[in-house]
Design a protein that fits this description.
The complex is a heterodimer of chains A (309) and B (296). By secondary structure, chain A is an alpha/beta fold. Helices cover 33% and strands 23% of the residues of chain A. Chain A has helices spanning 23-26, 32-51, 100-112, 129-138, 157-173, 205-219, 223-228, 230-237, 247-255, and strands at 11-18, 55-65, 69-72, 78-81, 92-95, 117-120, 146-152, 177-183, 261-271, 274-283. In chain A, strand 9 (261-271) and strand 10 (274-283) form a beta hairpin. Helices cover 35% and strands 23% of the residues of chain B. In chain B, helix 3 packs across helix 6, helix 6 packs across helix 9 and helix 7 packs antiparallel against helix 8. Chain B is globular, with a radius of gyration of 18 Å. The mean pLDDT of chain B is 97. The chains are: A alpha/beta (309), B alpha/beta (296). The interface between A and B is large, with 39 and 41 residues.
């Protein structure tokens, strides 16, 4: 698939990776690394303003679903959110601006590719911490309407790729100028005891080394190469809370499955032991080009194969 | 001296509340999952003959990767919307927390070397696992509760590490209760096998679609239930690593291990009130009535 250029009026004009742990929002001043993450969020916020997109598509690894994928469609969700783990950091009041018509269009795009999908628009629906952090920091005045897409806890590569492609279909069909935001950490091992903020560091040297390798790839714009490494990343540095490391699959699929991006790592820091980075990818013809990938591509989801039924 | 007067395996599929149509829940159902709902009804009938002061519940849907947390705000009133099944569960709750009991358990668990924290934020939304299990046990919410989080050491380490910590937490729970004057009901809020369907019919309560996800999980569920019914609770704990992995069980939360440890690994039989599947997962409502001190 062809890359789009920054000058292009529609399509995905920027891809963003941010962590969803709430410290950069609630207490960035407590640790120099958290401050740098916050500054990186702020820099991306400014970049988004410059680009003047008309849509933010958030894919949050912290919003898990079971019945296919869910899409937030409440035009103005409002709540006071409290993180279930870091509740002592404070409450997060929010009102977001959701692009409900796009959410419905996205559902139709997903279904057209064989996916189970549904929109959710209920008072008090619990928007996950990661989405709340991303939208509060990247789109603080709700200047850009957003949608949020869940991450199915059972989905593997095929399903996730198709979800990404369906998002791209909907963006293209609507002639939207979109920024896509992936919410997730790199290595995800938290400390399992309380730490002093100043003592925060990536949990292990191995996690740190892998994180830096991932960021080296992303810094070179090699998104599809990173996506192809997802299974190995899951084995090496991911606590298996879910079956697979999915964000790079979704991110690459929604951005066109290639390596032709200008990558920028704005920050890489520890967040309570996790490896957390703020990265942007701008479509750019001067990327490192196509590699020979060893996993097949998927256009349509055909459902679970029920191999153990 | 306080004591545990009852313990229950009390699964929390929101479908069960949905199918009951209580006034607190907005969506309306025609029917559904009766074998489990009737099981809860029988459990409530037995509980009606037991005097108790508080319910303590450990829920997999309050996930705290850093330590075990305890609700520490005296009163909550809010709206709970299930993030996965919002079409079924939009429940307005109002509940009291036995904060002194929660603090006693938190302190005792800390003394045992566990990482703990009291949850003091009044804006906190109580998780739907806690709400569903407590509603189905006491729909009128007559008693204060203590909710304990699930600290996910299965994911971070292994089932073995999780069990070591949950056994310590169960013993600490028991000691804390005994040091008070409370008569307490404990709830382990979890399913047995836990592989869901990833599709839902247009009418969620259409029972013609409901069955266990696969036979292999059913076999595991029956094995566990038979062991619990015959008082072989230590065997259950010993095989928990295999069960958790092979049945994709929600026992990874530690709720059942915590309950069995708090009950001091009962060798008397559990009462099976009901078994049924919910969107493919296996669920049993089971209860243990420990002998009173004079019976023991």
């Amino acid at each position: 698939m062809d890359a789009v250029t920054e000058e292009q009026q529609t399509g995905v004009v920027l891809g963003v990776l941010v962590p969803g742990i709430p410290h950069p929002l609630l207490c960035p001043e407590q640790n120099a690394g958290w401050t740098r993450l916050r500054q990186a969020f702020d820099a991306v916020r400014d970049r988004i303003r410059e680009l003047q997109p008309d849509l933010l598509v958030v894919y949050s690894t912290m919003w898990t679903s079971i019945i296919g994928h869910q899409i937030q469609a409440d035009p103005e969700p409002t709540w006071v959110h409290v993180d279930e783990l870091f509740h002592d950091l404070g409450s997060i009041p929010y009102t977001f601006r959701i692009d409900a018509p796009f959410a419905h269009a996205l559902k139709a795009s997903m279904e057209a590719r064989g996916l189970a999908a549904r929109t959710v628009a209920y008072e008090g629906f619990p928007i996950d911490t990661g989405s709340v952090v991303a939208l509060k920091l990247l789109n603080p005045d709700n200047a850009v309407p957003a949608v949020i897409v869940s991450s199915n806890m059972y989905s593997d590569r095929a399903e996730t790729l198709v979800v990404g492609k369906a998002c791209r279909d909907a963006i293209d069909a609507g002639k939207r100028r979109a920024v896509v935001v992936v919410v997730g950490t790199l290595s995800n091992r938290l400390f399992t005891d309380w730490i002093d903020p100043e003592d925060d560091h990536v949990h292990s040297a191995k996690d740190d080394e892998w994180n830096r390798k991932i960021l080296e790839f992303l810094g070179q714009g090699r998104l599809e190469d990173t996506a192809q490494l997802s299974r190995e990343i899951q084995r090496q540095v991911r606590i298996p809370k879910v079956v697979s490391f999915k964000p790079m699959w979704w991110w690459s699929a929604v951005m066109g499955q290639h390596n032709r991006y200008k990558g920028e790592v704005l920050a890489y820091e520890a967040l309570f032991g996790t490896g957390s980075a703020v990265v942007t990818l701008t479509p750019d013809e001067s990327g490192v080009g196509e590699k020979e990938f060893d996993e097949d591509d998927v256009e349509r989801f055909r459902g679970d194969r029920n191999v153990i039924a | 001296m306080g004591r545990i007067v009852y313990g229950a395996l009390a699964p929390h599929p929101p479908h069960l509340v949905y199918a009951e149509n209580p006034p607190q829940n907005e969506p309306r159902a025609e029917c559904g999952w009766e074998t489990l709902r009737w099981g809860y009804e029988r459990m409530r009938r037995d509980l009606a003959d037991i005097e108790y002061d508080a319910i303590v519940v450990l829920s997999p849907h309050w996930q705290t990767y850093v330590g075990t947390h305890f609700l520490g705000v005296p009163h909550f009133k809010s709206l709970s919307v299930d993030p996965i099944f919002p079409n079924l569960f939009r429940y307005r709750y109002e509940l009291d927390v036995d904060v002194p009991l929660a603090e006693a358990m938190c302190a005792e668990a800390s003394k045992a070397g566990l990482v703990t924290k009291m949850m003091r934020n009044p804006d906190f939304r109580v998780d739907y696992g806690t709400i569903v299990s407590c509603h189905l046990t006491d729909p009128a919410w007559r008693k204060p509760i203590v909710s304990i989080s699930s600290q996910r050491s299965t994911a971070f380490y292994s089932v073995e590490v999780m069990q070591e910590q949950m056994i310590a937490l169960g013993h600490a729970t028991r000691r804390a209760i005994e040091a008070t004057d409370r008569r307490v009901v404990l709830l382990a809020s979890e399913s047995l096998s836990h592989r869901h369907f990833v599709n839902e019919g247009p009418m969620p309560e259409d029972m013609s679609r409901e069955h266990i996800t696969n036979h292999h999980q059913y076999l595991w569920d029956m094995r566990l239930i038979e062991q619990l019914r015959s008082g072989r609770t230590r065997e259950v704990v010993e095989q928990m690593p295999e069960f958790t992995e092979q049945a994709v069980s929600e026992s990874d939360s530690g709720a059942l291990t915590w309950l069995l440890a708090a009950l001091d690994f009962p060798s008397y039989p559990a009462e099976l009130y009901g078994y049924g599947t919910v969107i493919g997962t296996g669920n049993a409502v089971m209860g243990w009535a420990p002998p009173t001190p004079k019976e023991a």
